[in-house]
Design goal:
Elements lengths: L1 E8 L2 E8 L2 E5 L1 E3 L12 H7 L3 E5 H6 L3 H6 L3 H5 L4 E5 L2 H6 L4 E3 L4 E4 L6 E4 L1 H11 L3 E3 L11 H22 L5 E6 L5 H14 L3 E4 L8 H12 L8 E3 L5 H10 L3 E3 L2 H7 L2 E4 L2 E4 L19 H5 L2 H10 L2 H27 L3 H9 L17
Parallel strand pairs: 4-14, 5-6, 6-10, 10-11, 11-12, 12-13, 13-14
Antiparallel strand pairs: 1-2, 2-3, 7-8, 8-9, 15-16
Helix pairs in contact: 6-7, 7-8, 8-9, 10-14, 10-15, 11-14, 13-14, 14-15
Length: 377
């Protein structure tokens, strides 16, 4: 992996990642393809929208279909017929969400499969082994995702275990040609976050992720974490904010110096009829759209907005038609990827600060709470 910083406006960065399967322009939003597919979208459609990198999930793919099936296809790229880059989550977040079904200790996590109740085990070494079989371009360390709210003592214990696991992941990754990212933890406690980042830098990774900021914290806490962590993160490495978030989250976090994002929000919200537009979020299921002959977003150039009316999208959603979920997902992903293109253009033209001000004063960002925390200080 090679990462080049092309431009900087304040703390916001315009960069470029060179990976095994192509170039990724940053800041970048990575659509989530948990089971080896971005829900409702084909690889060709994703490429048409401009996606350069997607996510897969170690935990889910390990259980189904299993690494033997994927390895027989030469890795996850061949299995899902995706020619672009892939980042795989380590499975730590999913294991955290199964708190009632797992036992965690220093060695790893023993848990029961949510599919069939079978006993499973995930350790730092096993997570790396699975991700190497998937042949993902970017491999993530296994970490322990910390609860929120949490006591400082519990957060410290959890973070320090994650750092020991990070060292084991680094050793297990050995001389693999795939990139390996470490994950910063420490909840909302600045000294723990600094300790975590210093430990990760000492181990040495290709990139650095910030975890534990999408489990219920508000923006005051998120802003504090970003301010703290990024002041101690290597400038020459990419920074990845995991599981975030809304369009406002992305615009704000770029201002703090984040390069990479992922979130299920655009695809999940699409299936529930919540659509992101230049006029703010539109709930297409609402009855007021039943007779609306206007496009979903007159300012949007995507295939959905150029072809279909709000009335038709409302009809599909109300009827539970598969096409409705597909078209909604198509539009939401277009919106997110276009937003990142707008951010990159603003950075290239030294107009990022003006872009932020305009965004947060427009319908796109005007309904976001605690807007004063969205600007890096």
């Amino acid at each position: 992996m090679q990462f080049e910083r092309l431009k900087q406006c304040g703390r916001a960065r315009r960069g470029r990642l060179q990976l095994q399967h192509g170039t990724v322009e940053t800041p970048v939003f990575m659509p989530v393809g948990t089971y080896g597919t971005v829900k409702a979208m084909t690889p060709a459609e994703l490429l048409g929208l401009g996606a350069e990198i997607v996510l897969g999930n170690t935990y889910h793919l390990m259980l189904r279909p299993g690494t033997d099936v994927i390895d027989a296809h030469g890795g996850l790229h061949g299995f899902m017929a995706w020619p672009g880059s892939i980042l795989t989550d380590s499975g730590g977040f999913q294991v955290w969400s199964l708190a009632q079904m797992r036992k965690l200790n220093e060695d790893g996590v023993a848990f029961r499969s949510a599919l069939d109740g079978s006993r499973q085990y995930l350790s730092p070494e096993k997570s790396i082994q699975v991700q190497q079989a998937l042949n993902s371009d970017i491999v993530m360390c296994l970490d322990e995702c910390t609860d929120y709210p949490v006591s400082k003592a519990a957060a410290a214990t959890s973070m320090q275990r994650s750092m020991r696991w990070a060292a084991r992941c680094r050793a297990a990754h050995a001389d693999s040609r795939n990139a390996l990212f470490g994950i910063n933890q420490g909840s909302v406690f600045p000294d723990l976050r600094i300790e975590s980042m210093q430990a990760l830098v000492e181990i040495g990774f290709d990139g650095y992720a910030i975890g534990g900021v999408s489990v219920g914290e508000g923006w005051p806490d998120k802003a504090l974490v970003l301010e703290t962590v990024l002041a101690h993160a290597p400038e020459q490495a990419p920074r990845y904010l995991m599981g975030v978030g809304t369009p406002a989250d992305l615009v704000a976090a770029v201002g703090f110096g984040i390069d990479m994002f992922d979130c299920v929000l655009p695809t999940r919200n699409a299936r529930n009829g919540y659509l992101f537009t230049s006029e703010g979020v539109i709930k297409i299921k609402n009855a007021r759209h039943r007779h609306d002959l206007a496009p979903l977003d007159p300012a949007c150039a995507c295939h959905v907005c150029q072809t279909y009316t709000r009335a038709y999208l409302h009809h599909l959603h109300r009827c539970g038609e598969i096409l409705g979920a597909r078209l909604n997902t198509w539009h939401n992903l277009h919106y997110y990827l276009q937003l990142m293109r707008r951010l990159r253009t603003a950075l290239e033209t030294d107009a990022f600060a003006a872009f932020q001000r305009q965004f947060f004063s427009s319908p796109e960002g005007s309904d976001t709470p605690q807007a004063s925390y969205f600007f890096a200080r």
